[in-house]
């Protein structure tokens, strides 16, 4: 690759989704990484702050500029939230009963 002209026409890149957890509080398989090739000499900056995130100086160099999003926790996370809410309500009832 010798120029960034290809990226002038395509602005957004999105990695594939991983697999679902398939029950039993399991985590799914991770999706493959999305690699976006750039020419040597490219400087990668944060869009909002202008901070330099990296400088590609060699042909096979890689730089991670974004990690995948954290999962919501699915039903397992929801169950924990419901349990905490039930515990809080139970504690409130006990506090009201005490003189």
Task: Write up this protein.
The protein is α+β, with helices and mostly antiparallel strands and 99 residues long. The protein folds into two domains: 1-68, no CATH class; 70-99. It has helices spanning 6-9, 74-97; strands spanning 43-45, 52-55. The chain has a two-stranded antiparallel ribbon with strand order 1-2. It starts with 5 loop residues before the first helix and ends with a helix.
Encode the helix/strand succession as letters: HEEH
Report low-confidence residues grouped into runs of 5 or more.
none
Determine the mean pLDDT: 76
Strand content: 5-15%
For the terminal residues, how far apart are their CA atoms?
77 Å
For the CA atoms, what is the radius of gyration? Answer: 23 Å
Quick overview:
By secondary structure, the protein is α+β, with helices and mostly antiparallel strands.
Task: From the structure above, extract its key features.
two-stranded antiparallel ribbon; 7% strand
How are the secondary structure elements laid out?
Blueprint: H1 6-9, E1 43-45, E2 52-55, H2 74-97
Antiparallel strand pairs: 1-2
């Amino acid at each position: 690759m010798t120029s960034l002209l290809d990226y002038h026409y395509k602005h957004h890149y999105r990695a594939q989704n991983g697999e679902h957890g398939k029950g039993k509080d399991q985590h799914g398989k991770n999706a493959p990484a999305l690699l976006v090739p750039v020419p040597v000499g490219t400087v990668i900056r944060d869009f909002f702050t202008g901070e330099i995130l990296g400088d590609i100086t060699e042909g096979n160099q890689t730089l991670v500029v974004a990690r995948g999003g954290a999962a919501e926790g699915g039903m397992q996370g929801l169950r924990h939230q419901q349990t905490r809410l039930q515990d809080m309500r139970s504690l409130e009832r006990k506090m009201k009963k005490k003189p």
